[in-house]
Amino acid sequence: MDQVSGNKITRALLYLSGVSVSFEGFRAINNLSLTIDHGEMRAIIGPNGAGKTTMMDIITGKTRPDEGDVLYNDGNVDLTQLDETSIANLGIGRKFQKPTVFEQHTVEDNLLLSLKADRGVWPNLFWRTTEAHRERIDEILEITKLTAHRSRMAGALSHGQKQWLEIGMLLGQDPKLLLVDEPVAGMTDAETAQTADLLRDIAKDHSVVVVEHDMDFVRALDVKVTVLHEGSVLAEGRLDQVTSDERVIEVYLGR
Amino acid sequence: MISRAIFENNVGGTIFLGILAILAVMVPVLHLAVPEDSFFHVSTSTVVVFGKYLSFALLALSLDLIWGYCGILSLGHGAFFALGGYAMGMYLKLQTSGGAPPDFMVFLNWKDLPWYWWGFDHLSFALLMVLFIPGILAFVFGYFAFRSRVTGVYLSIITQLLTYALWLSFFRNDMGFGGNNGLTDFSTIAGYSVQAPETRAALFSTTAIALMAGYLIAKAVVESKLGKVLVAIRDAESRTRFIGYRVEAYKTFVFTLAAMMAGVAGALYVPQVGIINPGEFHPANSIEMVIWVGAGGRGTLTGAALGAVLINYFKTIFTTGFLAPYWLFALGGIFILVTVFLPKGIVGTLASVDWRRWIPAKRAPADEAQLKPEPAE
Q1: Domain membership flag for residue A108
Q2: Cross-referenced NCBIfam families, in alphabetical order (chain A) (predicted)?
């Protein structure tokens, strides 16, 4: 264990150690160890089937690991014991690979639902949207360039706009840690560049983990990169560093 | 704020409430004050039959609340209706017997009322039970089913089993609910004869008012932020979880609320038709309710109520003539036609038409872009 201080196992925001999970004999995650510091932005790359999405499922409580530790917030919380809702309420937000917004709600209502607030049944039955909430929604609409679309049904948005709305919903939740799965899949080059700006901006006051295939995008993010392969970490470092690593070239860039 | 949400931009709802208010006043007047030979007289049978339709409308409304807005397709919703009906039936039965064990218990040689009949000689207690018994059953059932994340067709199957189990149980004589015959031969309600025209008129108006109240409650729920969460659960359940909403709590809430509304509908149904028997628990009834809601328009509230009235009206016409044996074919036909030609139901289709197009020149062309697009299916 590398970050022992006092009696704590870790001081990191997110700490995975020796995590493994198998699906019917297939080891999707194999002895994975990974640490994300407070305020850090990290890009995770890897070929298809490297376990990127499964890793996110484990962090957000969708999948329970067979073994290993998943600790959050200076090692204070054991995420393997909690369900999706509890983990979300601890401040871990997630954007899915396939954009998942509430299609039958307006853009504005999508953001309203995501705003950080009491998630209980009664407070939501007697909910009043305050001026502060409206301002926050306006702000997010501005950031995600969706102001003109606020009253449209989310289902009618373009693919790229849905991706942004989902990122906007993450902003509304104001989580400590954002897990972003392939945010630029299916985007045009211009949209990709704008998304990179948006994420860098978000990373100023949030910790962000981005899973992505698009190398130009990862380069644009300009952050530490972790390469996953067959469910464990193959290499870690700056993008130019890992892309010159022989093993990475072999499994990922394909020679 | 809630009243604004209900009347503004809600033409259908305003018309719905208006018609019910008129019916609640006019039907008793036309039934009681207008002489029987007049063209405008409303006959006893009409009052009873339409009172029954309105109680079905309230039942359909409650089903729409869970199915239309939260995606919970219950095929056992009739269980809550029947339980509310039995609670009212127990009160009416004890009115007839004067608080003593009713006739069917005498036949069973039961000397005393079983404990679960205690208190039902008071109307206020019976009315509380009309809400609580369906409510508690729905809460317990919903808590376990939703916590275990039973969804979709599996949930439909276990709701069907719930009502089937109750159907079998209530048939048993030793359950103490009159077995096969159920509860009937009612004499008075709150001291008034259930057969009296005045009582019938009052029950009709009460049902219309209950339907209005049910609509207002349901509308307030679906217009609230909680209602938006319900729709979010319907369309993307796991996304809703990842945003931090406890999906099972929301589902349990709305399932319980709908069960209580269904209980009230059952309690209004029983004194008007004069009988409650285990047949009301039959799974086929619960499936029929789903057809009412689907035909009228799922997720519209008013459509559910309209569907219930229309289909039951057809049923009455059909099953009183020579076509009676073919009713189920007709019902199946309606279901197929609606699914193919009006997938959003009657009210859903009307609501998706842009009526403003027919009102000329009030709208600036720039608004065109702001029009709500067709939601993606």
Answers
A1: yes
A2: urea_trans_UrtD (TIGR03411)
List pLDDT tens digits, range B5-37: 556 678 889 999 999 999 999 999 999 998 988
- pLDDT digit string, tens, across residues B228-264: 999 999 999 999 999 999 999 999 999 999 999 999 9
Give the number of A-B residue pairs with CB atoms closer than 8 Å: 94
* Residue A201 placed within a domain: yes
How many domains, in total, are found in chain A?
1
Cβ-based contacts of B245 with chain A (< 8 Å)? 85, 113, 119
Q: How far is CA B45 from the centre of its chain?
A: 21
What chain B residue is nearest to A119 in terms of C-alpha separation? B245
Q: Which of A83, A125, A173 sits opposite B224 (nearest CB)?
A: A125
Secondary structure class of B113 (helix, strand, coil): coil
**Contact assignment for A126 to B253 by CB distance below 8 Å:** no
3-state secondary structure of A36: strand
> In chain B, whose CA is at the least distance from the CA of A102?
B232
Residue B323's pLDDT is what? 84
Q: What is the pLDDT of residues B107-116, one digit of tens each?
A: 999 999 999 9
Asked if A88's CB is within 8 angstroms of B243's CB, the reply is yes
pLDDT of residue B356: 67
Residue B148 and residue B251 in contact, taking contact as beta carbons nearer than 8 Å: no
SS (HEC) of B179-224: HHHCEECCCEECCEECCCHHHHHHHHHHHHHHHHHHHHHHHHHHHC
Which residues on A lie below 8 Å from B221 (Cβ)?
125
Element (H, E) at B123: helix B123-147
Cβ distance B372 to A62 less than 8 Å, yes or no, reads no
What type of residue sits at position B348? G
CATH classification at residue A181: 3.40.50.300
Contacts of A100 in chain B (CB under 8 A): 236, 239
Q: Determine the residue among B9, B221, B225 to mutate to test chain A binding: the one whose Cβ has the most chain A Cβ atoms within 10 Å.
A: B225
Q: What is the pLDDT of residue A253?
A: 59
Q: What percent of chain B has pLDDT over 90?
A: 80
Contact residues, chain B, for A101 at CB < 8 Å: 236, 239
Chain B residues near residue A151 by CB distance under 8 angstroms: 370, 372
A48 inside domain:
no
Which residue range(s) make up the domain with A154? 93-222
Q: Are A101 and A112 in contact (CB under 8 A)?
A: no
Q: Residue B365: what residue type?
A: P
Instruction: Please answer yes or no on whether A126 and B250 come within 8 Å at the CB atom.
Output: no
Interhelix angle for B197-223 vs B11-32, to 10°?
Answer: 170
- Inter-chain CB proximity B228 and A109 less than 8 Å: yes
Q: Is residue A25 part of a domain?
A: no
Confidence band (pLDDT; 50, 70, 90) for A50?
Answer: confident
